[in-house]
Design goal:
alpha+beta
């Protein structure tokens, strides 16, 4: 049953990617040329919202929806001291609706058709708890005993390049470089560098890095990247909230659907977290700008402050 569902999701992704009558130019290796820098320019929720159950909206409604989502994000308590939020809300170009192959989308999840992640009952309860904390407090629910207990992304060990890439803020462009034997994907927010070989065999999981163990192949004009062995510490992903456990398999699909648009689709298979595989998508757009250094460690004052604050709170309790 699971195999049939995965096959159906793959067929759905392949069908939607091939809907446009476009063929990418070939590079020197005879591959569809996906090279260059690609980026997003919108905030896109993961799931369908009660006030917006439809996946696709007309342009005017989509523009109003984008403004609403952006305004709500700026009010989250977790962002209350983040200057980037004020900048994002003030920039009209960051409030654009998400355009995917000519349609304005309201969410990333496209299958199941209701737009909701097929979480197990226990994991759905955890998601409600975490999102409630992000909305009302400035502290995510992570241990405060030592630096290693904190999530890798908070410690600047990884950024927003772990598969699947779900944060659609425009501060995380991706650069793709292709060779005969591998594809290189560099995400600026981190920075996170993935060198993905063209092979059908994963390496030993003991050697998997913080970005997991990824392998790639071509399905027609679509680059397919399969990842396993992601770190258990990063099961909880922020902004938007998502769970990707160490047992998950992530299948990413990159398809160039026009001269300037790159369709990004991903399927997550994780029986411990979800009752079924699911499919999500959004589009990246070509930009004529380079990637820049993301100096995360140099400005990471929050980690020592979090630990010092926890020690102060413990001392106050003892008194």
């Amino acid at each position: 049953m699971k195999a049939a569902l995965i096959a159906a999701l793959v067929a759905l992704a392949a069908g939607s990617a091939g809907a446009a009558d476009y063929h990418a130019p070939k590079n020197a290796f005879g591959q569809p040329d996906l090279g260059g820098v690609w980026n997003t320019h919108f905030l896109l929720p993961m799931e369908a919202r009660p006030d917006t159950p439809s996946l696709v909206l007309p342009k005017a409604e989509a523009e109003a929806f984008a403004r609403k989502v952006n305004a709500e994000a700026g009010k989250l308590a977790i962002f209350s001291e983040d200057p980037e939020v004020a900048e994002t809300r003030a920039d009209p170009y960051r409030n654009e609706p998400a355009l995917v192959q000519g349609q304005y989308h309201t969410r990333q999840v496209v299958q199941p058709a209701d737009g909701m992640l097929p979480l197990t009952r226990g994991m759905r309860g955890q998601m409600r708890f975490i999102e409630g904390l992000l909305a009302t407090t400035t502290e995510p629910p992570f241990p405060k005993d030592n630096p290693e207990a904190r999530p890798n992304w908070e410690r600047c060990v990884v950024g927003w390049g772990q598969p699947p890439v779900t944060s659609t803020s425009d501060i995380n462009p991706r650069q793709i470089l292709q060779t005969k034997d591998a594809v290189v994907i560099l995400s600026e927010y981190g920075p996170d560098l993935r060198i993905v070989p063209f092979t059908d065999q994963h390496g030993p999981l003991l050697l998997a890095g913080l970005l997991g163990d990824s392998i790639a192949h071509w399905e027609g004009e679509t680059l397919v990247v399969e990842t396993i062995g992601l770190p258990a510490k990063d099961t909880i992903r922020p902004f938007p909230t998502l769970f990707v456990s160490s047992k998950a398999k992530v299948i990413e699909r990159y398809t160039r659907v026009s001269k300037t648009e790159l369709l990004y689709q991903y399927t997550v298979i994780d029986p411990a977290t979800y009752t079924a595989p699911w499919l999500a998508e959004y589009s990246l757009y070509r930009i004529n700008k380079p990637l820049y250094e993301f100096a995360c460690h140099e400005g990471n004052y929050s980690l020592p402050n979090i630990l010092a604050g926890a020690r102060a709170a413990e001392a106050a309790q003892r008194k």
